[in-house]
Amino acid sequence: MQIYKVGGAVRDRLLGRPVSDIDWLVVGATVEQMQAQGFRPVGADFPVFLHPKTGEEYALARTERKSGRGYGGFTFHASPDVTLEEDLIRRDLTINAMAEDEQGTLYDPYHGKRDLDERILRHVSPAFAEDPLRVLRVARFAARYAPLGFKVAEETLGLMRQIAESGELQALTAERSWKEIERALMEPEPQVFIEVLRSCGGLMELLPELAHGADTLPALHQAAKLQQPLPVRWACLLRGLQPAAIKALNQRLKAPRECQELAALVGEFAERADHALALEPASLLEMLQKFDVYRRPQRFEDFIAACEMATLGSGYPQGEYLRGAAEAARAVDVKPLLESGLTGQGLGEALKAERLKALEAYKSA
């Protein structure tokens, strides 16, 4: 039995980046041998075990072959006879197909270290084209390592185009697609993810609404520079689409509720926000009511942030104006209205009228 550290932990150590999760590979062992040493099995599709003391995951070396469509269409074979090289060749990129033994010796049968040094994202073998999820993964790695100068190899882009043209991307579940999109949006240069997908034809297959839309990538890049949260980044990317397209995209990908809501609101109200200084109080109040700034102030803050990103740091005085308007509306005290005996619809209408007065005063101040 031989144990190796594999994948991202080896890659990031060589890049001088922090190593968080460690994947361990076990060569030459059986399921029974692992269990006899106290490892607890957790893998449903292939043998993965938890270390009895550290809780880290240890996987038996395995091979795989294509047996159906989509990400899950593979048959795995784990055996003590599977070699380290046979396990590593099934991985996506050469930089992820390196291993270290317990003495720290590097095993690099597919020249991942060379590609690290040359800043190249290159597939390990032609079997890369069998897994459509790898189109998104490579684009995500491109977004992560763009600040270090990494580029996708032309031959790898060619295989990604082959996958996109095959229709295999349509076999990905919404959950798997969104997981990769979400992770990519939180990378340092998420706009690169979209650019790579566009260059290989994957954008038209997965996110056709964005393929010919407005250029929102500078705003997305700005959101990443300022470390905005996921909903703001998603809203920046979708800004400029028609409401129906935003709704369709959100529903098809099963995006989280916060992302769906903010993207829809930015699509509906961003242009109004851009002209906030000229808005009549009634129009301003309608907008604040739609956002429910009284109970969900953070959502309005995220909306303003998404609008600010589109200016690319050139300033957005409308933001402070909208924040002030929201504060003026929130400052209206409902207590006197309750004490006057108002309830139900009458109370709601009176409260709305008071908030309108507050916004009129705010605008004229």
UniProtKB/TrEMBL annotation:
Organism name: Pseudomonas oryziphila
Gene3D superfamilies, per database record: Beta Polymerase, domain 2 (3.30.460.10), cca-adding enzyme, domain 2 (1.10.3090.10)
Pfam families: PolyA_pol (PF01743), PolyA_pol_RNAbd (PF12627)
Record-linked HAMAP family: CCA_bact_type2 (MF_01262)
Catalytic activity: a tRNA precursor + 2 CTP + ATP = a tRNA with a 3' CCA end + 3 diphosphate; a tRNA with a 3' CCA end + 2 CTP + ATP = a tRNA with a 3' CCACCA end + 3 diphosphate
GO terms for MF: CCA tRNA nucleotidyltransferase activity; hydrolase activity
Domain Poly A polymerase head: 4-122
Its job: Catalyzes the addition and repair of the essential 3'-terminal CCA sequence in tRNAs without using a nucleic acid template. Adds these three nucleotides in the order of C, C, and A to the tRNA nucleotide-73, using CTP and ATP as substrates and producing inorganic pyrophosphate. tRNA 3'-terminal CCA addition is required both for tRNA processing and repair. Also involved in tRNA surveillance by mediating tandem CCA addition to generate a CCACCA at the 3' terminus of unstable tRNAs. While stable tRNAs receive only 3'-terminal CCA, unstable tRNAs are marked with CCACCA and rapidly degraded.
Parts of the chain that traverse the membrane: none
Enzyme class (EC, first level): transferase
Binding residues for ATP: 8, 11, 91, 137, 140
Residues bound to Mg(2+): 21, 23
EC code(s) of this entry: 2.7.7.72
Keywords, comma-separated and alphabetical: ATP-binding, Hydrolase, Magnesium, Metal-binding, Nucleotide-binding, Nucleotidyltransferase, RNA repair, RNA-binding, Transferase, tRNA processing
Cofactor(s) this protein requires: Mg(2+)
CDD domains: NT_ClassII-CCAase
Positions of CTP binding: 8, 11, 91, 137, 140
tRNA nucleotidyltransferase/poly(A) polymerase RNA and SrmB- binding domain: residues covered: 149-211
Name of the protein: CCA-adding enzyme
PANTHER family: MULTIFUNCTIONAL CCA PROTEIN (PTHR47545)
InterPro entries: CCA_bact (IPR012006), NT_sf (IPR043519), PolA_pol_head_dom (IPR002646), PolyA_RNA-bd (IPR032828), tRNA_CCA-adding_enzyme (IPR050124)
Family indicated by similarity: Belongs to the tRNA nucleotidyltransferase/poly(A) polymerase family. Bacterial CCA-adding enzyme type 2 subfamily.
Note in the entry: A single active site specifically recognizes both ATP and CTP and is responsible for their addition.
Superkingdom in the source lineage: Bacteria
